[in-house]
Structures are given as C-alpha cells and as structure tokens.
Amino acid sequence: MVEYDPVTKEIVRNALINIADEMFWTSIRTAKSSIFYDTYDFSVALTDINGEILSIGIGVPGFIGIMDFTAKYTKEYCEKENIPMEPGDVFVVNNPYVSGTHLNDVGVVAPLYIDNEMVGMAVAKGHINDVGGTNPGSWGPASTEIYQEGLILPPVKLYRRGERNRDIFDIIRHNSRIPDYAIGDLEALVAALRVGIKRVQELANKYGKETLKQIFADVLDDGEKLALEGIKKLPKGEFYAEDYLDDSGTHEEPLKIQARVKITEDKVIVDFSGNPPAVNAPINSPYPATVAAARIVFMALVAPHEPYNGGIARRFEVIAPEGSIFNPKWPVPTSVYWETMTYAADLLWKALAPYVPDKLSAGHFLSVVAEIIAGVDPRKNEYVVLVEPNPGGWGGHEGGDGESGLVAFADGETLASSVEILEQRYPLIVDRYTLNTLDGAGPGKFRGGFGIIKDYRMLADGFIFTTGINRAKFPPWGLAGGCNGTLNYMAIIRDGKEIMRVRKITNYPLRKNDVVSIRSAGGGGYGNPLERDPMLVLNDVLNEYITIDDAKRYYGVVIEGVWPNYRINYEATKALRESMKGKVECVPLPSGIKAYYGVYRGE
Questions:
Q1: Looking at the predicted structure, is the pLDDT value of residue 551 above 70?
Q2: Any idea which of 9-23, 426-440, 525-539, 574-588 has the lowest mean pLDDT?
Q3: Strands 42-48 and 117-127, bridge-based pairing
Q4: Same domain membership, residue 543 and residue 432
Q5: Are residues 410 and 345 in contact, defined by beta-carbon separation less than 8 angstroms?
Q6: Rounded distance between C-alpha atoms, residue 494 and residue 501, angstroms
Q7: What is the pLDDT at residue 17?
Q8: How far apart are the C-alpha atoms of 142 and 506, rounded to whole Å?
C-alpha cells in the first residue's frame, strides 16, 4: 500500500471533481445542439480501472447509475472480443439494455493511461437529437421494437490510437436526419474525454501513478463509509409502495407497478419483483436506467450534499427480474424509457416519504414532459429537430411549499430551454410561458408547486409533433393529508380553439399558426390544507396563483376586499374551517386527455 498524507488525498479528491466539471463545460463550449449547450442533456465522469465512478460532473442526475454501466460494458466487451483498449482510443456505444437508456443517449469511453498502464476510464454520454429510425427525433410512443428507433452501436472505435475512424463517423452521419448536429455533438463529448484524460495525467505527473491509484481506491472506500453513516440514520424495516403507469403504450389499460424496500443496518435494497413484463411499446426502462433512477433517491437519503462516487452505490442494491418492464430484454423498444424509469425512483420515494418527511417531499410531476417538433425550416432549407424536457411542479414538504417550474428529479441540473435560442433556431414563436395556474397544484398545509404552460406557435407548415408522457391519468401523490397534484398533458390549438389534449401521439402534422401548448402538472400537497397559514393563502391570492373562491373552497380561508387591498376575515375563516373538518376538497383534474397508439393517421 502506498502511503500519503491526508491533505494529498483531499487535494486529489477535489481535483477529480473539478476535472469532471471542466469536462462538462468543455462539451458546453464545443457542442452544436441547444440540447447540449442550453439544456445540458448530457453527463461526464471519470472511473477507476473497474468502471466505478470516481467523480461525475454537472449534468443529468439520471446518468449517475448509467455511466458506470457504460464503462464496465465497454471494457467487458473489449475483453470478450479481444479488442485492445489502447492510448488514444475512443469507443462509441448506445446499446440501451446494458449501457444505458435509449439509442439517442450515445456514450463515448476512453481508456485512461498513465505510464503505459490503464488505470481508469473517461466517460461521457449525451442525447443526440436524431440517430435515425422510423420517426424524426428517433423516439416516440409508436415503436414496437428497437430496430425502429435508430442506429444501434456496440462498443466500436470512434478513434483508434488518436486517429479518427472515418468509417464509423460516416455510418453515424448517414443514419441521422441532422448529421452535422449529430457529429458536432458527438465530437463535443469526445473533447470532454480528452480534457479529462489530460488533467488526470497532469495529476499523476505531480503525485505519481501509484499514489493516484491508491487514492482512487480510498476515495471509493470513503464513499462507502459515507453511505453507511447515512443508512444508520434511516428507519429500519421493510416498506412498500404501488402506483400505476397511465397505460402500456399500446392500449388504455393502466399498468400496476410496485416496489418493496428493505433497509438494514448496512444496506438499502429495492426489489421490483412482481411488476409487469416488458411491453411492445417504448416505455420499457433498461436495468441501468432503473438503477440510476433509484440511486438518485438513495443519494437524497444518505448523502444529499455530497458529490457522488461509486463507493456510495456499494451499499445499495436494485433487484429487477430480467424481462420485466424495469429490466427488458432485446428487442423491445426503450425510446421513451424515462416515463417508466422515473417511476422506479418514485416508488422508492413514495414508500419512504412518510417516514423521512425531512428528506422527501410529496409527489412531483415526475414526467420529463418532452416533445419533438421536427421539419424543414424554410428560412434556411434545413431539417431541424427540437427536443427538450420541460419543467413542472414539485411536491410540498415538511416546512415549505413545493417548487414551481423545475425539471423532474432525473433531469436535475438540466435547464429549461431558452426562449430566445428556440425562436432563433426553429421556425416558431413562444406566445406564452407562465406558471400553470390554469390547472393548479395540490392543496396542503404546504401546497404543491405549479407546473408550466408553454405555447409554441408554428411559423411554417410541414412540421410534425410527437410526445409521450405519464402522470396524465394518475396525479402526483399528496403526503401527510395533503391533496394530490394535477396532470401533465399537451394541447393543440388551431384557429384559436383547443382541438385536442394528448399524452401520447406520434408524428401529428402541424400547420402554420398551430399552437402546441405544453402543460405540466402541479405537485402534491403536504399536510391538511385546512392547517395552512391564512397569510400564505392570502399571498397566493395576491400573486394570482389562486382565486378568492379557491381560497375558500380548498383552504377554508375567507378573503374580503378588492385587489390589492385584500384582507383575511379571521372570524369567518375559523367558522368555515370548523364546518369543513373532514371535508377537504382537492382541485379537479383536467379532462379529455387522449393517447393515440401507433403513428397518427387522423381520428
């Protein structure tokens, strides 16, 4: 064992974190698509020789359980196929069943060499907006097998000993509807790897290879100790939660899903046994994605303020029988995997939230609420693909209201798209971008946060619209007596009239001046709404989040006067609340939200 002083370990530990962040910003500065440089839908990491994560940069939290799978799979594949991993090599891979999520999330892996010895790997994974397949954007609720969803890549060399492998680049280029953007974003990921490798090699020059290898091992051991300390503070026992996916992706019947959680003195185990088998629709969540989602909640429980590393995950186990919707087998599709992946986390969240309300809130809008708008931009005669996640409402929690207009937990540090960039890059105008007070949020002692409404008005004909979302039938759950939240959906407005509300649709033809209205759900409430501080209710009325009638109906608060000189009638409020005991009313849910299975052919 190499000896070193504790200060050196802390310097190297923090250097690894800073290197990962530098890798992240390198991709931001070099990417071609707004989903990278504006939305941040990618992630980067450094691993040890075994593929355990040493540090992970800013980016998608949903990838914390995926980067190690990508690295390990690439290394194991190369060993099995006798493919050497040499200095300067960069592998590209997007097989979702063993390395990730869906085909759009393309991973790149490079071996990290110091003094002719491979000591680790640099990894990056990001959403390439189009990798071929049946539908523009390479995802949509209509696919029935993975071959319809785009180009499938096992680990192959994108660069061989530092030299560009033109054959692989050409294959990728000729399978994308937007080849310049696909290649540009891929190169941005590669640039991140090069920066990461260079910086770690500089650390080795300063501290020595053997010292660095020992610190790698010790950093991971420290992560494991951190997890153990966090587990000691959790309630022990077995916990259960169930919920429903809106549908299977092929018909209207909901799918019941469940999770059992076991917490011992030294481990947390989540068991997804007993769930439905994988379906012939793209909502299946590959095992790495299922693990990733559950790890986010585990981190929130045991080490919410600490940087993640693979040592923390040693004390966390996810059981998901092969062939189930949480661990599908080839060749079922996975392109809309996130709409089931998120439930893997939400079930764990829901099972434990009543017991750790200081750590976990009521349910949030959960869905990525993503859409595709694609077609030929007449301003430059270029095919364009808009893909983005959208924010929504989070659940109320012990001591505070839910946050409004934040992305779902699995997206974490991704951002809502910039209106100015969208209007410059695509032939559309954002007519409205506001909190969704139209549908509301879950009342509670601490209410849920509000979702958003974002209206895109098309400035050109010939575009298509695709979406696939959940929590459009079953709203975010309330906690400790709080009400449920509202629903996610999207609407099409034509000639000033709302002509449809949808949760799933593929390749719907848009006309010039059509409006795509994105409407995300409000979060669940925490605690009895009749216990909400009347001043908080008054503030919500003054801020136009709710009406005077809402204040009376949901919270039992009587507000009088004329805006902005509203006042609370405390005597009437006390009497009304007394009469309402046991009769809490929750906000009505939006209606008429449809799913269209298969490619849209008209009603």
A1: yes
A2: 574-588
A3: antiparallel
A4: no
A5: yes
A6: 12
A7: 97
A8: 6
Residues 379 and 503 in one domain: yes
Residue 482, pLDDT score: 98
Quote the pTM value: 0.95
On whether residue 274 sits in a domain, the answer given is: no
Average pLDDT (234-257) is 96
Among 414, 21, 10, 8, which Cα is nearest to 196's?
21
* Nearest residue to 515 (alpha-carbon basis) of 491, 537, 538: 491
What amino acid is encoded at 300 in this protein?
A: A
Q: Judge whether 215 lies within some domain.
A: yes
In terms of residue numbers, what domain contains 513? 361-528+584-603
CA distance readout (Å), 347 to 242, 275, 368, 408: 6, 12, 16, 15
Total count of domains within the chain:
3
Q: Measure the CA–CA gap between 62 and 342, rounded to whole angstroms.
A: 9
For helices 6-30 and 179-207, give the axis angle rounded to 10 degrees: 160
Q: Kindly indicate the confidence band of residue 584, based on its pLDDT and cuts at 50, 70 and 90.
A: confident
Residue 121 within any structural domain of the chain: yes
| Burial group, residue 423, by CB count within 10 angstroms (0-12, 13-18, 19+) | middle
Q: What is the dihedral of CA 311, 55, 352, 476, to 10 degrees?
A: -160
Three-state secondary structure call for residue 426: coil
- Cis peptide upstream of residue 443 (ω within 30 degrees of 0): no
Residues 312-364: pLDDT tens digits? 999 999 999 999 999 999 999 999 999 999 999 999 999 999 999 999 999 99
Q: Evaluate whether 182 touches 128 at the Cβ level (below 8 Å).
A: yes
Longest dimension (CA), the chain: 80
Kindly state whether residues 519 and 554 are assigned to the same domain: no
| 202 and 187 belong to one structural domain | yes
Enter the tokens of residue 223.
């992560």
